[in-house]
């Protein structure tokens, strides 16, 4: 009787998946028990099916989500007691079969191992349940399992050694990374040194300009005092001469005339020269190079480059053709630029004889024949025209629309030569006092001091020009679906700047106006 009860108890302690005593038993919400590993593996396999589901293998109850598996402490204790009893039965010797050596289904001694069901079976199982299955002796199965365990141990040992080696390398890498603190200190020291050098250069530059200013102002002040003293002398001479002319007696007139001092020649004025451009030129070249290096070249090599948008094709040659974009969409950059928008007008007095300026002075067109009666002042010999407005300190922005390529837009000091430059059809950007962006059929050319920088960018019909006079920054933007920076000039501006344009035959430039 006790043996039958023990057998039934052991059947309740067997996992229905692995058919062995529970190992870390867990209880599902439906009340059925399984080995934690067995039920986890079962659900993992179900998840790989076309229609995954989380169900109990016993009652098929479905759960909305995977239950949290916690060990059934009470059941685990009962299983451990059963396992201890089994071990004590094995230690009793061959006199009789211990309960653990009997088949839980038929109560017969376990003799073979079923590979299909992965359990030990008796002779009845061999005939009934496991007849079509693969069956082997315990010794054969153990030999295979031992081989597998040895291979697993060897793999675990090798993997442990690899992990330990990797951890050592990570420790070394951590030390090397931490050692970079010295490099960081060195970099900070270098930047501090450069900062001090820039500050010294700034002080020296300002001191030189102030020295030139003082010398020039002293010369002007000396000349002003000479002029004032000369006016005083001339005033005294004029009073005495007028008094003498009013004298009625001839004798008195002649006597007083002899006492009148002669009017001496005026003292020569001190020549004063203060050429701001000459003072600034060597400094401007240095500051331009530093600005380009710090604001354009360095950020690109220090900061990580943003990846290209996924799925965006490269720009093809036919896409480089100038496209009209209307209406122009809004974007944050353009909105910021438009805060400083300026309405421009062309100056007909400067327009080349082939350029026709509209009535409102907002449009300039290159016509094949000479335009009569337009501009009586000195005109440009190249196909150029200035704007009436000039801009100094502050931030200024304007927009233009061009009909096609073969146009130059830029800024210049007032002294831009009006004569044709040898070898060029324009003179914008050929000297140090003008800057220009040439729109060509397949690219842009940025002109300054007679040098051109080629820029391979999409061509636009709508362009924006931003002038930050104080920072010495002149930028050209393409206005399309997004506002795109085409090119920036870095310089030191010393005079007011006038917008200027060059137009090839048949081209039209329109100055965009805003309320």
From TrEMBL:
UniProt keywords, alphabetically: Immunity, Innate immunity, Metal-binding, Zinc, Zinc-finger
Domain of life assignment: Eukaryota
GO molecular function terms attached to this record: zinc ion binding
PROSITE patterns hit by this protein: B302_SPRY, ZF_BBOX, ZF_RING_1, ZF_RING_2
Listed InterPro entries: B30.2/SPRY, B30.2/SPRY_sf, Butyrophylin_SPRY, ConA-like_dom_sf, E3_ubiq-ligase_TRIM/RNF, SPRY_dom, TRIM8/14/16/25/29/45/65_CC, Znf-RING_euk
SUPFAM superfamilies the UniProt entry points to: B-box zinc-binding domain, Concanavalin A-like lectins/glucanases, RING/U-box
BP term (GO), one: innate immune response
Name listed for the protein in its UniProt record: Uncharacterized protein
Species of origin: Geospiza parvula (Small tree-finch)
Lineage, broadest ranks: Eukaryota, Metazoa, Chordata, Craniata, Vertebrata
